Amino acid sequence: MNRLDAAQRVRELAHVIHHHDHQYHVLARPEISDVEYDRLYHELEQLELAYPDLVTPDSPTGRVGGKPLETFASVIHAIPMLSLEKTYSQEELSSFMDRVVRLLGHPPGACVVEPKIDGVAVSLRYEQGILTVGSTRGDGRTGDDITANLRTIHSIPLRLQSDTPPPLVEVRGEVFMPKSAFAKINQALSDQDEEMFANPRNATAGSLKLLDSNEVSQRPLDALFYDVGAIEGFTLDRHETLLQTLAAWGFRIAPWFRTCADRNTMFDAIAELLSIRHQFPFEIDGAVIKLDQRSLYVKLGATIKNPRWAVAYKYQPERAETRVKAISVQVGRTGVLTPVAELEPVFLAGSTVSRATLHNADEIRRKDIRVGDIVVIEKAGEVIPAVVEVRIDRRSGVESVFEMPRQCPDCGSPLVQQAGEVAIRCDNLQCPAQCKRWIRHYGSRGAMDIEGLGNVLVNQLVDMGLVHDPADLYTLTIEPISQLDRMAQKSAANLVEGIQASRNRDLWRVIFGLGIRHVGTRSAQTLESQFADLDLLMQATPEQLEGLPDIGPVVAASIHDFFRKPCNLDFINRLKLAGVNLTRHAAAPVASVLVGKTFVLTGTLASASRESITERLRRIGAKVTASVSAKTDYVVAGDAPGSKLDKAQSLGITILDEPSLLELLARGESGHTS
Ligand code: IVH
Fold first, then answer.
1. Residue located nearest, by CA, to atom 12 of ligand 1
2. CATH class of residue range 318-401
3. Less Cβ crowding at N or C end of the chain, within 10 Å?
4. Catalytic residue positions?
């Protein structure tokens, strides 16, 4: 293909891909399959690789990639991002409206009621229709430049869908983490004994603050938009028109809003929104009421903090009262005991709640929660119910103080509490509760991916004494399994086949499946890239481990300790005897060897842009950073390299020229051996 044809095709592909991004991420109406989408995307990537000068700033391939930042730059908002005055009752809202009438000297006409999304406010600057800067609200006048992070959100258009976009517009809205995605992330964190996010808003704010946009791209963020700041060469006379215009430009807008002619319809709309608040995929904490006539905005103006033409109506966080029937104790995968309040079922924030987490023994003591107490519960972030208060005034005297057990409720082993930790744990790896969780983890999709090994089955296998740990799975035969409840011969045979097939998984899956505290998939992949087999990993010193990417002192100590426990050594030995692969696959793709390696690029590369090389390296698990340090694994020197090359030489870091890099990449991508 010649350059002219390539340029034409690049434009076509960008257009088509933008269209499908919008169909999929904004409208949830995909028109093509993922495979077809990937094919278009790949074709564009290849063309951009061959003709780097054809890469445009709004190319759909530019959502991820780029090097991690050292800090965020500051952005001055052309028009400040104000916050909203809050009201909590119909009376307060009425007085707000009375003031509007007083200031205007006449009724304001219609208003729009829309959800108040509980996320993080952002502003997107589009120049000639192209996204140039994305920023946080900051103090309202100046925010952080988080453009790279915002570009990773697929529902944010990189260019406006319009042939006549305004020369400049600041589009404002809210980034959020959908409730379902938040629940999944927290579950995964809890499975790995990591600290969980308090609510979706914290998870969103934490994600947007990451300096590495590649990491942000892994976070399931979404965004919707409801306002404009500065806008040139374009007038929007009504708020409803503004919302429609944003939707036409390709933004996601709230799936629900009402234009109300008078106060009564406004109150009805607020009540309607309250009644459906749990049906939205994101959290809302109230309603926002805006005058529909935007010409009134200038007349009404703003205080230092708030506009006088819009107001928030905050819903009270939903609370309910119920009785603590009992306090039970759950044993997690890594043995941590969590006390849980068993409640008389009560309806709260969209669902029936019968349990609330009590976090740990300290928390129970601090709040003085007793069995039999009437307690007030609240859905913190609507997802995890928590006890916020004990109704001490309603005690009758029969309530009993809860004591944490001294022995594991499942296996009776004595419990341990490490110095400096609030967590109390059961250290017995044979504990049935832990066994079940461990076996589930071992067989899960992210670890050994054992087909047919569901939760119910794991419970039965452990309860019947057929397996005590994941290594026992390999001794299972069809006969005893088919005796279990609701297990036919065929499904028993499938399970055995699934288990046997798992013997040949990648080493990192086994490492992850071991269930070492703090070791997730990413660190497991790093470990595989550094140790050719499990024996070598087992011999590693904490110092050796600590030097690896993604592995700090806590993780290193946890890995080291795991391999010093006789029961774990016995377990690994039985995996070995069962024929489970404990070696980096002989045919390990270069990709896995490059996982976690740090690259620095210097000088001009002839064949491709730095961004596309960065993206390709990132895809196969490597990292690209800005400056050379002792942690750098490879420096790629293009034409006219800078001082980074001298530094690399002085530190004795491997230096690659462009052809070697491309070869390494090509082999990594096609999965051939090194
Ligand atoms: S309009 C000048 N509309 O609430 C007013 N804000 O306290 C611009 N928010 O910082 C805001 N949903 O982060 C508006 N539908 C909505 C909103 C909304 C959530 C947030 C926004 C703002 C805060 C105001």
1. 116
2. mainly beta
3. N
4. 116
- Residue 283 Cβ contacting ligand 1 at under 6 Å: no
Helices (H), 110-249: 147-151, 179-191, 200-208, 213-216, 239-249
Q: Domain 85-314, what architecture?
A: 2-Layer Sandwich (3.30)
CA of 289 to the centre of ligand 1 (A): 10
Q: Please state the domain extents for the chain.
A: 3-62, 85-314, 318-401, 432-577, 598-670
Above 80 in pLDDT, residue 191? no
- Identity (one letter) of the amino acid at 359? H
DSSP 145: B
C-alpha 458/C-alpha 291 separation (Å) is: 58
Q: What is the CATH number of domain 598-670?
A: 3.40.50.10190
CATH T-level assignment (fold) for domain 432-577: DNA polymerase; domain 1 (1.10.150)
Does the model's pTM come out above 0.70?
no
The single residue listed with the structure tokens 């990491």 is 215
**Whether the predicted pLDDT of 17 surpasses 90:** yes
Decide: 522 in ligand 1 pocket, CB within 6 A. no
Residue 246 in contact with ligand 1 by CB distance below 6 A: no
Give per-residue pLDDT as tens, 234-292: 999 999 999 999 999 999 999 999 999 999 999 999 999 998 998 999 999 899 999 99
* Atom from ligand 1 closest to the CA of residue 306: 2
Ligand 1 pocket, residue 226 CB under 6 Å: yes
User: Ligand 1, from 114, 117, 171, 289: best to mutate by most atoms within 8 Å of Cβ?
Assistant: 117
